[in-house]
Amino acid sequence: MERNFGEVVGINGNMISVGFNGNTLMNEVAYVHVGEKKLKSEVIRIRGERAELQVFDNTRGIGIGDKVEFTGELLAVALGPGLLGQIFDGLQNPLPELARQHGFFLERGVYLDPLPAQLQFEFTPAVKPGDTVGRAAVLGTVPEGIFTHRIMVPFNLYGSYTIESMVPKGTYGVRDTIAEIKDEHGKRIELSMVFEWPVKRPIDAYTERLKPTESLITKVRIVDTLVPVARGGTYCIPGPFGAGKTVLQQITSRHAEVDIVVITACGERAGEVVETLREFPELVDPRTGKSLMERTIIICNTSSMPVAARDASVYTGVTLAEYYRQMGLNVLLLADSTSRWAQAMREMSGRLEEIPGEEAFPAYLESVIAGFYERAGVVRLHDGTYGSVTIGGTVSPAGGNFEEPVTQSTLKVVGAFHGLSRERSDARRYPAIHPLDSWSKYQGPVNREKTEWIRRLLFRGNEVNQMMKVVGEEGTSLEDYIIYLKSEFFDSVYLQQNAFDPVDASTSAERQRYVFDAILKIMIADYKVNNNDEARGFMNQLRQVFLDWNGMEWKSEKFHTIEGELYRMVTEKSGSSAQELDERLREMFPAKPAASALQQE
Ligand code: ADP
Ligand code: MG
Prior knowledge:
Bound molecules: adenosine-5'-diphosphate, magnesium ion
Oligomer: single chain
Radius of gyration: 28 Å
């Protein structure tokens, strides 16, 4: 292809203005020539014969008149087997390899192949010469870790093709030709296991998008029970600095019932991403017993990298997630923190001298955020299988004020809101999701009538607590005080969860339903206590036993022993047997057809 050239006519931080004569496209990749180096950049505005480009590297040394080479190609990522387990920067440079070759102080203008030719896979063909295929059709498969990776017709090959030749089953390099196809006009195209896709375009090689209805079990009790997430749905975690957003995402990436996790880390602090990189490879996947990295991809940027790289990393992450969805897998994309990305947008918008919106964010902030979350979804693929991308993004508003544009724009599009509270994290009530302020539009594993009942209890408990701050414990009636104690009990034994206890760290859906019912029985019992002190003493004892119960392996002998002990205490204090409480519970919540989450399991 004839290449277009232009020259630098202006430099403003990470943005350069380029004069050119030929054609250029929005989001086209261009390289700025600085001495021997070529710095990657992306066209972000075109006006007549002048274009603005964001440069993904430090722009130091760029001068007026420097040559700019337009590639004619959109900013894209390489898709193929071998992505799992990798750590990339926003431009899909493999970071460990980059560090190995060039040291930790990343050199400018060095771009490495994310899927180098020497990478080999055992390929099994799925089609034969003469077969007709279209975009995303499966040409064959290779094993990638514990998954079957589908080698597909590139998603940008629209129309119908005939297989001309196909390699036999065997081991091949990812860039070797494995098939040759011919289009309707007889043009031949060679295919390898790798192809590219532009990151800013959602991958749409599926038959149908479906409404997300199936719960995504995170095994974090407060999430699944009170503010559930759906497979293919979206959620956000806004919270002040240090409230536990990053830790919560790490817990989720480890325990959530999904196949693959893609993490895009736009660091709050420079050290934070390094921590993630150091800790993550050591984490063990509770399902396979192997390294968690084998089903994880990390895209990472620190706050010291150019802002444009943050923008790229968010899109790179979601594109890789969509690619694995095409394998019929359930993928979870965790973006931490989207505020950093929004700040990058604000910075670029300022340089472009666009008319600013609220708090100087660009007026299109809302539509860009919506466009990102809309890439989540459950899809039915051409072969009838299903895949999903779920997106969870953290938001870190300054001072924890949720009334700012990034949080508000995000809240308009997501299906669940997990608001972290400074008050709860200060009290070390982890995970610090606020049970009353947070919400979800999705169905979780526990019956909604039951969770609504608990919400009312929490609400009343909170009212009593507020009142007690004024009138003191002595001025609070025994009846009110017991409501307060019960809500505190629920908080400490259910909403709070010990991320460091091997058993308590993750609670299956089945166990959540079971334990939630046990709690309801404890809540509806009438305790015969004479005063506030006695009530507090009893609930404290009960709490201790319950916390022990949380640490017991599900349905183990000890689990049942402690359960017996709990009911013995409840019966002794209330006079109601476990059976009586069971019956009352059934009267309060008559059995209904199972929720969709139950049918799935
Ligand atoms: P944020 O990302 O919101 O700034 P972090 O996730 O980095 O906050 O959490 C800050 C600190 O709070 C952690 O280093 C840890 O000490 C503590 N913390 C957060 N969540 C938990 C948790 N679930 N269990 C125990 N400690 C936690
Ligand atoms: Mg964080």
